[in-house]
Request: fold
Amino acid sequence: MTTPVVVLVGPPGSGKSTVGRVLAERLGVGFRDTDADIEEQAGKPIPDIFVDEGEPHFRALETAAVRAAAENHGGVLALGGGAVMAEPTRALLRGLPVVFLEVPLADAVKRVGLDAPRPLLAVNPRARWRELMEARRPLYLEVATAVVDTAGRTPEQVADAVLEALELKTPHD
Reply:
């Protein structure tokens, strides 16, 4: 069993995929995004899964994707924003190097865009984002080894902060 060197969690717009790619490159390891895994397995985009099969079906796919990646990926792993809602996922993350990328609403809105195809943010995205964060923030904190604030930082600066928080060395160090 190979486990990730870094697992990134956080809400939509926190930069998990962008920062994850930067980290993977710096660490000389692969990058994996469980949302991309789900889309590949399902053969369709996540918003279509929500519409066609519903959120419970998507969450089951997500839990399976996180388990597969957490047990078989030795690089940087980015989880979907709601993955931490599942207790089996939170249990799986215990003991792994998990970083919660914290982002203020204003930054998330700029990064995600309010017209982006995010099924849970479709109606009144700002209010819905706040509701999701109220529910999820305690769970992000529960699984996190470290918390990195992304406010006003570039992806490269966030990657630096993640490396520092986890005391990880890059091949160039």
Summary: The chain has a mean pLDDT of 88. DSSP finds eight helices and five strands in the chain.
